[in-house]
Design brief:
By secondary structure, this protein is of the alpha/beta class. The chain has five helices and eleven strands. The protein has a single domain, classed as Dihydrofolate Reductase, subunit A (3-Layer(aba) Sandwich), CATH 3.40.430. The termini are close together. It comes from Terrabacter tumescens.
Length: about 190
């Protein structure tokens, strides 16, 4: 069975973006960008329509770090987009993403990872399909301008830390194995997701 990694970047206060701020809050440094370049593995990148529109626009504008995504296989789940898609190596899937990802995990030959796509990630986590959860935390609080609160609507989840790293002396990368909770910690036993 193929592994699914949910991968987010966030401000310290849990926002995925902020009005008026550049990508990566303008804080991407050389170590972080080099690490992104190394992430050009053979995994399939999963995303929703909103993330597709944003990232393909950033890529076409030459945003640093997006060039690594051009050659990677991508699947966008959408009932509003139509083919042909402008971003290379992108497949459009218009059916239920939970069903499609479950099938991809069982019969696919490549690991899966997400890119943004809060609604998609929330649905995959609730369905018990997520094997690992990774977040890059950027050292900024965007309480006034932050958009896309990442964890709103998520179920309660216990996270077992399996890796941590610091880039450029300021960006934290944390990787966890998630376990769904049916109540507060200590009152129930965590259930492994995948």
């Amino acid at each position: 069975m193929q592994e699914l990694l949910v991968d987010f970047i966030a401000s310290l206060d849990g926002y995925g973006a902020a009005e008026g701020w550049p990508g990566w809050w303008g804080l991407e440094g050389p170590e972080y960008l080099a690490w992104l370049q190394q992430q050009s593995d053979d995994s399939i990148v999963l995303m929703g329509a909103t993330t597709y529109r944003l990232m393909s626009e950033l890529a076409s504008g030459g945003e640093p770090g997006t060039e690594v995504l051009a050659g990677r296989p991508k699947v966008v789940f959408s009932t509003t987009l139509t083919e042909p898609l402008a971003w290379p190596n992108t497949e459009l899937v218009s059916r239920d993403p939970v069903v499609a990802v479950r099938e991809m995990k069982v019969s696919g030959n490549r690991p899966l990872t997400t890119l943004g796509s809060l609604t998609l990630c929330r649905a995959l986590l609730k369905a018990g399909l997520v094997d690992r959860f990774r977040v890059g935390i950027f050292p900024v609080i965007t309480g006034s301008t932050g958009t896309d609160r990442i964890y709103d609507g998520y179920p309660d989840v216990a996270l077992d830390l399996v890796e941590s790293r610091t880039f450029d002396g300021r960006i934290q990368l944390l990787e966890y194995i998630p376990k769904l909770l049916s109540g507060p910690l200590g009152t129930t036993k965590p259930t492994p997701i995948a």
